[in-house]
Structures are given as structure tokens and as C-alpha cells.
Queue: 3 jobs
Job 1
Amino acid sequence: MIVTLAVIAGGLPAVAIEQPDDFRSLSVRVPEPVRSELDAALRAWHADYADPAGAHAYLRTAWLRAASVGERAWLNAEFDAMLAFADSRGWLDEAKEHVRAHVDTSG
């Protein structure tokens, strides 16, 4: 699953999800010209926030589930497995409300 920021003229970048049913990986793809707007864009879209260095984004698990699984309830088990794996690696916060994702500026 890839969370992307798309450049929108005159406003904050839009946040969207590519490959919403690929639960084997999670990253945030940000074009270099809008990397400095990552934190503001995530907050504006209620996806959540980026670390000050911009190396990682912290995504609300509820937002991510709604945006990727949505009405496709059969995908909940795969989403939960992705979060369990993230938790085993220390990528979920203690409350299980945010998952850490790597920020990729190469694409």
C-alpha cells in the first residue's frame, strides 16, 4: 500500500492511496518539491503527521483502514495482519492508533 501526495496548484497536496489492497508493504510517496508540505498535508487530511526530519510518516490506523479497506470487509483480516506485523517490528504506537511508514521521495 502506498500513500501518495499529489501536487495541487494553489493548495496543500492531496493525499491518496495506491494499491489499497496490497498489505505486504506500506510507504508514503512524496514528490521532492512538496516534501516540506508532508506534515501539513497529512494533518489537513486527518491522516496524521510526519516526523520533523520527514523520514517517516505516522498514519492514523483508523484513517488508513477506512481509506484502504472501506466497505470491503473481507479485507479486514489482511489489514489486521499488516498491523500485527508492524506491531511486531515496533512500528505501531502503544495505543495502536498510529503506524509508522517510510517516506519515499524517489518516485
Job 2
Amino acid sequence: MAEPKATTAPSLGRDALSGRLERALSSLDGVEGPTVEWKRAWMLTALGRYGEALDACAAAKAGTPVLQASALMTEAMLYRQIALHARAEEADEAALEVMRADRVRSAPVRAAIRIGQVADAVGLGMERTVLSRRLQVASAAVTAAGSWRQGVRLTWVRGEVLMVTGAYARAARVFASGAKVASEQGARRHHAKSLIFLAASRAASGDRTEARRMAERGLQLAARCGAAPLIWPAELILAEVDPDGADRHLARARQFAGGVLDTLPDPLRAEALRRPPADWLVGEVADAAAEGLYRGAGPATDA
């Protein structure tokens, strides 16, 4: 019997994890290889440069099994950001299959995939029993990984599941706990995303004042990171909870969402434009009103 392959996923580096995405990306200039391509793919996805990210994922798949699994996991992350949840589900399952087939041991990668599968289930509207089961599996994987970053990501999907059930106050507490950890770690992008999720839960519960405050803080942090995929959901929430600035926020949401979708290759862009919220925000039915749309416009769970 073949021995299990004890492998470690490459580190993204402090600049990437602290939200200095452009600096982290530029540090890879002139360097080649599958490991570098995976790092580049992750950062490009976080920046909303999706076409380049997909090319980098394809190049990373030439690497070791753990890199192949990481590249597939990153593709799933990207697909969730453009609401292609069925594609994300397939990519996450393919990543797990690589790990099974090659007997790869990498607790952080496995945790990231398992968290993604919870988000896939939310996006696909699966039954609550499936959501609960996947959340239990993801929680165990995060415990095994012992990673603060995966712990923050777990709060995102745990909160999303609570939002689906209408438990907005409980979801807010979960998102707030993730925001606290991310802030303590100096992880600006993770902090921004937790705040935007928190804003969505506050808006859903009718607390517009707190929702606006959280969305504005999250938007400020996301802008400092250059994280375009977080900017447009924050602007959509603000379009709902800041009536006086609704038109301005909706226009900015449309601008940023359209900008990231324009980086996709044409067939994939067309597919994404048929999915909400892109269909009404930047597609042919882009004149839809903003009222109530924060409920389906939270930031998709990613790395």
C-alpha cells in the first residue's frame, strides 16, 4: 500500500493575508512555477481579475497533487463570487477527489474545501439537513487545521446558514466574532468581508443604522485592499440602507460588478450574466430597483 503523501500547502505570505494584495502580487513578478501560479491565482481572484486568475489556476494544476487541489479550490472560490454555484460544487468535489486519489494530507486545504462546500450548498438552495451536515464536517476540518483564517471563513458559512433560516440576530453575532478575529490578526480583507456579512445580517433584521455603519467600514477596508469583489456587495447593502445615497451606491455597485465580470472569458461572462444578482445589476434587466436586494447580494464565501 502506498504511503500517504504528507504535504503542506504553500503559504500566501503576510502581505496577501493582511490585505496588501497588489504588493503581494507584484512580488511574484518574474517568478515561475506551479506554486507561484497558485499564489497568483488566489490574489488575482481576491482582486477580481478573474480571467487572469483562471489562467493561473490552469498553470498551477501542473504541480503536485496538493497544488492541483488548491487550484481547484480557488476555481470554486471564483465561481462562487460570480454565482456559478454548480460549477463551484463540481470544482470542490474534484479537489477532494485529487486529495483522496493521491492520499494527500493537508488539513488547511481540506478545511478550505469543506467550508466551500457549505457555501455551495447555500448557493444551490440545498435542504437544511444537507447544510447542517456539511457545516458539521467543515467545523471538524477547521478544528483539525488549527487555522485562524479558516476559522474566520467558517464564521462566514455558519452565518450564511443562519441567514437562510431567518436567524439574523444569531448570524450577526457569528459574523461579529469573525470580524474580531480578523481584526486581531491584521487581516484587512477578511475583516472587511466579515463586516459586510455583518451589515447584511443587520439590514435583514431591519437595523438600517447599524447596517450602514458596518457596510461603510467594510467598504473602506475593501477599497484599501483593492478587493473589488467585496466593494459591489457593500455598495448594494448601502443602496438599501442609505436611501438618500441609493442611486449613487447602486451605480457604484453596477460599475464594480460589471468591471470584474468583464475580466472573464466571453462564454463564462455570458453565463454569469444570466445569474442573479448580475442579471438585474449589469445584465439586460439592470433597471431593477434596489429594494430588498441585499438579501441575495452578500459577499460569496471565499478564501
Job 3
Amino acid sequence: MDDFGTGYASLATLKTFPLSKLKIDRGFVRDILADPHDAAIVRAVLDIGRSLDLAVVAEGIETPAQQASLVAMGCRCGQGYLYGRAVGADEIARRLTRAETRQAEPASRRPASPDGPAGPADRRAPPLPSGRPESAKPTG
């Protein structure tokens, strides 16, 4: 369920529909460090997700401090500009092809990069523990 905690995404929906994932709306993540109410809501959604055996994804992670706070709360998956901007399907296909080609080459034949062994991606924040990449499509 996208943007849980806003609009029509109510607690009754958790009981009515067969869900596998909750997404915490970016509005709660944005002020998680400054607003204790937002932090409490995020903790509550994480607890609900764990209790119902649902994956919980935090949307809108933009800073390492937000990521650290979410990890400390037990969040295992997130998405946001900290990890990269949304890209179209064509760009995703190009990146996957490039990564597959790079993995197929022996390490000794790969060109050295001033950004590190994997290129500019070395500068990006690591994914949340046990997280997996979410869709690059913006969710609203």
C-alpha cells in the first residue's frame, strides 16, 4: 500500500486487502529528525508492518541522517534521492546491461575509475540493511 497514513490509506485497509508491503509516505520521513510526532508515526507504522508480517518501505529518504534514524527504528528498506533520482525504463535497461557486461569481464581487464572500483556509485549511500532496490518509478 503506497503512502500509508495519508488519504484513503486507512487502518481498515490493512484488514480488507491482501497486502504484502506498506510504504511510509515521504511527508513523515522528511521531518523525522525535527518532529517527534512524525518519528512516532514512522515507528508505529514499522511496528504495524512487523506485526502483520508486511514489508515496510520508507519513501523520500534524502539524507544520511534520515537513513540512520530509520535504520535505528528497524526500517529495512527505503527509497529516495539519497540513493538516486528516478529514471525511465530505457535508462534502467542500459544500466543493467552495463552492469552485466562489467560483471562478465575479469577484474584485471576492467578500466580503473577515479571514483573507485564501481565508478560513481561508490559515493552513494549504502542500501538499508536487507533492503532491495525499489522501483525507479515515482510513486506520487
